[in-house]
Design brief:
It is built from two helices and no strands.
Length: 68
C-alpha cells in the first residue's frame, strides 16, 4: 500500500482508521506510490473497486509468494 496514504491531506483520518480496522491482522507493507505503480504491470491480476480514495490502492499477494 502506498505510504502516502498515511500522510496525504486528502485522505481523511476516519478513512485511515477504517482501512486499519479492515486490514487488522493482515501484514501490510507500505512503499512509495511511484514504486507501487511500477509493480502493477507485473501483477497477475488487478481488482478495480472504483474507490476514489487517494493512495488507497492495495496489491494483494498470495501467501508464500515472492514480492513481485
Amino acid at each position: 500500500m502506498a505510504e502516502e496514504f498515511n500522510s496525504h491531506a486528502h485522505v481523511p483520518v476516519q478513512m485511515r482508521e477504517d482501512y486499519k480496522r479492515v486490514l487488522q491482522g493482515i501484514p501490510v507493507v507500505y512503499e512509495h506510490h511511484e514504486d507501487l505503480k511500477l509493480r502493477v504491470p507485473k501483477a497477475i491480476g488487478l481488482i478495480r473497486t472504483a474507490d476514489k480514495t487517494w493512495y488507497g490502492n492495495v496489491i494483494l499477494e498470495a501467501a508464500g509468494s515472492e514480492a513481485l
